[in-house]
Structures are given as structure tokens and as C-alpha cells.
Description:
The structure holds three protein chains of three kinds.
Chain A lengths: L3 E9 L4 E10 L4 E5 L6 H9 L6 E6 L2 E2 L10 E4 L11 H6 L9 H14 L15 H13 L5 E5 L7 H18 L2 E6 L2 H7 L2 E6 L2 E6 L1 H6 L4 H6 L4 E10 L3 E5 L5 E5 L12 E6 L5 E3 L3 E10 L4 E7 L6 E5 L7 E5 L6 E4 L2
Chain B lengths: L9 H29 L3 E3 L2 E3 L5 H8 L1 H35 L4 H9 L6 H12 L4 H8 L14 H11 L1 H14 L2 H9 L4 H29 L3 H7 L6 H9 L5 H32 L2
Antiparallel strand pairs in B: 1-2
Helix pairs in contact in B: 1-13, 2-13, 3-7, 3-8, 3-10, 5-7, 5-11, 7-11, 8-10, 9-10, 10-13, 12-13
Chain C lengths: L1 H27 L16 H6 L3 H34 L5 H9 L6 H15 L5 H25 L3 H9 L4 H30 L2 H6 L6 H8 L6 H31 L6
Helix pairs in contact in C: 1-11, 3-6, 3-8, 3-10, 5-6, 6-8, 7-8
Amino acid sequence: MSFLSIKAVSKAFAGPPVVDNVDLEVPQGQFFTLLGPSGCGKTTLLRMIAGFETPDRGTISIDGEAMNDIPPHLRPTNMVFQNYAIFPHLNVFDNIAYGLRKQRLPKAELRARVEAMLATVRLEGLGGRGAGQLSGGQRQRVALARALVRRPKLLLLDEPLAALDKRLREAMQIELRALQRQVGITFLMVTHDQDEALSLADQVAVMSSGRILQIASPRELYERPNCREVADFIGQNNFFHATVKTIDADSVTVNAGLLGVVTLAKANVMCAVAPGDRLLLAIRPEDIAFDDAGLAGEIAAATFLGETSLFQVRVAGRSDPVIVSNYFDPPSKAVHLKFPPQFLIGLPEH
Amino acid sequence: MAEKGRNQGAENGYLLLAPTLLVMGLALAAPLALVAIYSLKTQSGIGLSDGWTLARYGEVLGRASYQVLFWRSLAVSGAVTLVTLVLAYPMAYFVAFRARRAKFLWLIALTIPFWTSYLLRVFSWKIILGFDGLINSGLMRLGLIDHPLTFLLYNPFAVVVTLAHAWAAFAILPIYVSLEKIDRALLEAATDLGDGPLRRFLRVTLPLSMPGVIGAAILIFVPTTGDYVTPTLVGGPAGSMIANMIEVQFGRIGNWPLGSALALVSMVAVAMVAGSFVLLARWAAAQVR
Amino acid sequence: MRKHALLLYAFAYLAFLYVPVLVLPIFSFNDSQFIAFPLTGFTTRWYAALGADSAMLHALVNSLKVGTATALLSTLLGLLAARAVTRYRLRGTGAALGFISLPLFIPDIVLGISLLLLLGVAGLPLSLGAVVLGHLLVCVPFALTVLIARFEGFDRDLEEASADLGENGWMTFWRVTFPLILPGILASLLLAFITSFDEFLVAYFLSGTEPTLPVYIWGQLRFPERLPVVLALGAIILTTSIALVALAEYVRNLGVKRPMVGA
Lengths: 350, 289, 263
């Protein structure tokens, strides 16, 4: 039995379902991320776990306890809101102590717990600050502290870094990861930022149009996406149409048009296939190499990215340019491209 | 309960709304319905005779003396609205755009006069405009006139001046708020696109402040049409308005059906004039290019 | 140049607003029963006579009662309705708001006589309670406008954050919602109180044998020899109001300077 268990949960407002028959199991102590474009239903799912929305169907349980009929204020979860929802009429200390007051702790203990939490999020000495006097990063820390001080079983984070600027966001990613390790609480974060998801999470669930497409570790997600949508959403990919020719014990041979006949490892084909089936081959820009021989093309545009450059290569017989990432500029605009078969992933066409 | 979701608990919403609607229904809808019923009756002694009649409306709309009162009420109130807005607009503009850090001080200074009793403020104009009032004694002291001016008081002019003073705050504040809301970048954009100060005012500032102007106009026009105090104190017989006649019907004369008909007709007239004014103002604002 | 013209206009307008208001206190110190120029001499006897004028003090107490009741009730009704329309997406919200705001578009005299008819038909006596009912008509739309504005500026996430941190609906209201909308509540109370305290026409029709202060003053305006005392009271009310506003402003500034209270 996993720690957070979501079974067949659906939710619709007016119109089509926002969350559509979602199953999700999150083990205890993980940093788990829900990744998807805006409007994919990830925030609604998070709000159903917190109790702010009620599922139309399905069950949500935490630590073996069904949550459906439990109001938000009695759930063992706490949330970091997207815009932090810092109470403007309270100072930092009182914001963090907000959720402890009801427990009627002795004054000294209350103070000790809040001070300890202030130290954990590195806001020592700022307890007396007014909510209006905080920077974006500080507001984020207060929101974290306010939730964590209640020692929830599950911490929910709704785009916690989206309101911060780029540099602060990167610094906070590292801190957030370290904080999760330190407190050992299960974190469930919602984000639309793939870099954030990949760098923070133990596991990522990719959502689109209310459904979960794939649940995997960041590396797995990047290297072996299970469908075109995931491959497209996470990083960049080039796609080629192909038809299955033959199938062996551990390999699949396909006719891939411009790429000729290629043989893929069976583990790299993400769906069940039979001879004659259509497939979509995906390959990342950094896995394509410039070579002396191979598919001929011409560089149409180059974008300098610092460490690498990104090239758009026009190829006869294909409308989209092939995107190639490389450390060096090739000597001439006329190039030949090599597609190492071990980097080609076979995806279902739909 | 507060912990329910954003889209739940419509019953609770109606429950919260119910007390207010109930009170307003009791104090507004029911009495207005009674006015409508009374206006279709005939006074007989201290009661009403049976049967329904439109005769009161015939009287209200047919008798010349009432028509004069209706037209005068609407005309005086229209003039009050216009004068008040025209006088208040530059003031509001000044506070919104020129007062800078003293903005709040100006707003306080502009509202303090309205802490005095409305009745006393109106009465004060009687002292100022009167036969031996401030203006006449001042002018005589200066030797500019030999005899007190008598055209100052007890006429529609006195009513307009007094009401323009009494309702000033209701013009300044809404106009100020709508001016204050205007994004300063829009004004810079207008200048950047080649508008001088005047064109910019006419094409950007004024149209964008129209909601405040329209709101202020309604806030002033409606109550002043039915004002009773000012015409009674400073209007004289030549300046009396429809509210005076309604009061007389409910007071001394005791013809409640006729009073009800007068009240309903004036209410409808005010609503129609105010409504067409709003439409006209919107149309005018839409003509600006 | 245009700048100076506008400034000049602003001061002229200020004078237009203040002259009539300042004339009154002047006559409250004038040693004559007649409110007319020229002034005859300085006296404080009208102020001395205030305490002895029991009818006027009675009217003042009536007005304070009516004003307080109107302020509390209209703010309560406004609070409930504002909460309902900002919190829930209800069918008919527009119609309900339109209905509640209707008195703004009806001349006071019509409101006054319509309630007079209601009392007559229901066989109820004229009373201060009837005046309060009439004043609610005028004040609830104002209270509602002020409070809706306050609720709309209020971030719903804050209530959810409170629920998330373990407080139930009622405690969330007291610990988060109420403190944050308090300025709106105070503004509504103040606005309703002044409006009621100063309202004449509705009270004139409904107060019967218990005059409010404006109704009492109206009666005195016909007996000029009593007027200086009324003016003295007017001057005191004006001074008190200004002092109260200044005090409120002072307290507000104190609040701003305290680092505990944020934006």
C-alpha cells in the first residue's frame, strides 16, 4: 500500500472533465512532481488532495485513510500556495504560528517550534517582519515554514517557484530539494516547468488534458518517453515516421524513410508492435551527429546557446527542419547527419 | 461553510443573501406596491372609496400647475447636476493629477464641509443670499449698491446654487476615483502618439473618466429632483418643486391617492430622464476617436 | 501658467465650499437672536443655553439611537449580502444587487411617503423604528458597495490557507477574513451613521412624536429666535466630527508605522 493513493479520480466543472480517471501511487518520503502544461488538471488534482475540491468519482487516501469526506482543515496535508497566501495582517512569526495556535501549546514550546522552523528555512531573526516587507524568496520561505511547522504527512506545493525570478528560482530548487531530504516529509509538487520537475523530483507524473501520460524517474522520462506528447513536452525531439518490417526476440527492424532501414532494441520501442504497424521514431537533438556521410542537408539557421549551438538543418523530402545540437560549428553549411540507432526511440503513432 | 470549494454551497449563498432581500422587500417593494395601489384609488373622507380609477393620473398629467412643477423640478435638477459637475470636475482633476503628496489632505479638506448638517448648510445660503445677508451687506458696505439686491433669494437660481454646494462631494469623489484609476502610461502613450495636452484630455482623460461623471450625475440628479428642503427654504413660490406638492398631499390636504400618483409619476420621470442621460453619455463617449 | 490657474481654481472652489459652512459658527457667537448682518457682538450664551434645551437634547439622543441602529443593521445586512455575491456564483446576483441598489434611484420623498403608507395600512404607529427601516433603505446600498469592494480585493487563497492550516470555517472568519475586511466594516459603519444622522426627509414623515435632530432643527428654522442655539449645536457637531476624523487618521497612521501590520 503506497502512502498517497489516488484511485480512478475524476472531476469536471462545467464541461469536459478536468481530471479524467486518474490513478496515482506515491511512496512515503518521495519528492514527487506532477508536470504538465497549464490547464492540464494538475492543480485541480492537488486541490482535491488538499480538500478544496471534491472528486466527482474515485477515492483519495493518505497513509491508508480515506480522505474523501474529510474537510481540508482536518487533513494531514499542508499546502504551499502558488502566490504563497501570506496573511497580510500578521507578521512572519504569527504567520508561521497560525496553524499551531489551535493546538494550545505552552507558549515556550510554540515559540521554540516557530524559531526552529525559522532557522530551518533560514529566516532567523525575521519573525517580527511584516508580511508586506518580505521579498519574493522570503515569502516563499514563510509559506514553506508555515506549512512544515505543522508536521504534515504530505506537503503539497502548487507551482512554488513560479513567482520567483530565474536566478532565485534555481537557488531555491536546490534548497527545496535539501529541505525535503532534511525533514523527510513526502512532497507533492505541481509545476509546468520541466527543468524544475527533472532537477527536483524522485518521480514525475506527466499530465495532459486531465490524464496521466507517464510516471517515471526524471532520467527515464527524458531517455525513454512513452508517447509523442511526453517526448515533445520534455526537452526537444525530432520525429520520423516509420513502418515495422520484422520483429526478433530483442529487436525491431523498421523502414524509416529518409533514415533508411534501422534496427532498434526492443526495450526502446515503447508500445506493442506487429509487422506492418506504423511507428514514430524520436531522437534528441544532442544525439544526432554531424558526419562525413549520412543524410545530406543544409544548415538553415543556428542559435548560439553558450555551451552548445542549436542548428536547424533542412533536409530534402521533409518539411520540418531537423534540429541538431552540437558543441562545434561544422566547417560548411552543407552537412551530413548521422542517427545512431541506439538513441532512436519507437513511439506509438497516436 | 468556508472549507467548501469555490463552486459549492449555492444554498449557503442564497441563505446569506436572504435577510437583506427580505428587509428590502419589506421596506421597499411592499411600500412601493402600496403607492401604486393608492394611486389607483379615490380619497373619501379619511379613507378610500371602493373601485379602481385612473382619474388621479388624469389630474397629475392634465393640470397645468402640476406640469409646471414637474418641468421645473427636472429643469432645476438638470441645471444643478450640470453646474455641480462642471464646477467639480476641475477640482477632482486637480486632486488626482496635481495635488501629489497633498492629495489626502485635499480630499479631507473637500469633505469636511459635508460634516455639517444638510439642513444648516442649506439654511446658510439663506443667510448669504438673503435681503440683509452676507452678499448684500457686503456690497452695500463697499458702496457698490444702495439697496439690497432682491433677485438673489427665493427663485430657481438660489435653488441651483444651494444644491450645487450641497451635493458637491457627490460629484468630486466619484470623478476623482475614476481619474485616479486611469493608468498614467495611457496618458504618456497619447502624448507619445502626438496629442497635445488639450487633445489628450478630450480623447483619453475625459472618456476614461466618464464612468465617474455618469455615476456622479445619477447620484445628484435623482435626489435633487425630489428635494424638499432646498426649494422650501430658498426657492420661494417661484422655486417650489414637485416634492413640495407631494408633501402637501400627504400632509395638509390629506389626498393620499393624488400624492401617490404624483410620487409615482415623478419617480418614473426621473428614471426615464436618468436612463436616457446614461445612454446619451455612453453614446457621446463612443463618438470620441 | 495652466498649472497656476488650476491651483487658483482649486482654492476658489474650496472657498465656495467653506464660506457657507463657516457662516454658521460665526452666528453661534453673535449676540443677537436674528441671523442677519451686521454682526452685533460676541457672546457664548447660546452655548450656555444648549444644556438647558431638553427638547433639542432629546432629539439629539434620538438621532444617535437611530444612527447607531442604522449603522449596525445596514453594515450587517451589507456584510451578509456582500459575502454572498463575492463568494458564491449565484444565479440572479445581478437582479438582487439591482434591487438592493434601487433606493439610490428613487427620490427620498417617495421612499418616505411609501413607508408612511405601509405603516398606515399595517396599523403601526410612527416611531424611531420606522425611521431606522427607512434609513436602512438609503444606507444598505452604500454599505453593500463599500463592502463588496473590500471583499473583491480579498484574496480567496488566504481563507484556503487558513483551512489548510487547520482552522474551520468560523475560526477562519475570525482570524483571517474579519481582520482583513475590518477597514471596510468601519467605513460602512461610519458612512451609514453619518447618512442616517443627517437624513431629514424620511425621518420627517416617519418619526411622529419622537423627532430626530434634523426634524427638530427643521421645526426651529421657522422660529428664528431659537436658531442661535441650533447653530451652536451645529458648530459643536462639526468640531466633534473633525476631531474624530483627525483622531481616526492619527490612529491609522500609527498602525501603518507599526511593522507588524503589512500592506
